Predict the structure of 3-dehydroquinate synthase.
Amino acid sequence: MESILVNTVDDTYPVIVGSDALKELPNHLRGLSPSKILVITDTNVDKLYGHVLVDLIGGDWKTYKYVIKSGEAAKSFEMFYELHSYALKNELDRKSVIIAFGGGVVGDLSGFVAATYMRGIPFIQVPTTLLAHDSAVGGKVAINHPEGKNMIGAFYQPKAVVYDSNFLQSLPANEMRSGFAEVIKHALIRSESLYQFLFKEIRRLDDIKTEHLQRMILEGIQIKADVVSKDEKELGLRAILNFGHTLGHAIEAEAGYGKLSHGDSIAIGMLFATWLSNKTLDVSLPYHELKLWFKEIGFPVEVPASQSTDQLISRMKKDKKTTSNQLTMIVLKEIGVTTSAIFSEDELYSLLNEWRAEERSEKVD
Ligand SMILES: O=C(O)C(=O)C[C@@H](O)[C@H](O)[C@H](O)COP(=O)(O)O
């Protein structure tokens, strides 16, 4: 078992990672002496593991469980409000603790409920997906707005992240792929050696074995914890974690939440950002190699034909990194090294169109 620390302005918290990490949860709960506990989970996780968590917590604390419908659509204002009503009805108070038990959706939504209920109560992340090696660490909690991903949210850090890798054993392929996209992102922005390892060892999703998972989770979390510890509120450095997300979020929202997974959407976004790096920075990143690899893994490699460049640019203008209509893209100087590039709406429109046209003509050839 490993423990990686995240240092924030107000606190330091551990991300406990390992195949038996879950047994650490009661210790962390004891440290918080909760008046009550609210476990928020989703239908998929509840079916498989709901009892495991409740048994572990045992009768020591009065515990409630709220099960949301699985899927991105649950990161909604309605569900947020419903969870507040549930907490109020059951008289949770400021000493109550929320446990987010699930993937990115559960973590983001529960974290935002914790951040806002009575102006903030403690919460613990217990992630169950590969994607959550990213989303559960760093305190970005949010719900979606039809106009954009994570538009309503906060920076609100958990008291601990208890990441038991046993949960990953039951992940369906599409969930594994989605999380793998964030692993690749961490490698592309910060670690050439992790990138080479993944590229060499994992050509198909089936290639992912326990030892691969161990390395990708640990290194991914280390990268994330390091970046967040240096820039908790995204005043500068932290924006690199958004590599692939400017276009990725636009594609995801345009498709309708839950239609295209987060990982698949940002895989397309990362390909565009890599192409853009070559186009605008005078570098020569292995774009075609990356695209071929993504195809082998099963990622979509193009923007859905039904989404117009106009629609996407109008969504990208609402990206949180956009100021005064200048769109910021995180690009690569080399694998493992990023920089940011600023474009006007017209410039990015032309570049996105050019990339899409190139991709279409390659398909015809
Ligand atoms: O933690 C961060 O910072 C990230 O940007 C990580 C992303 O992978 C994650 O999807 C994040 O929630 C996106 O944040 P947003 O600020 O673009 O909504």
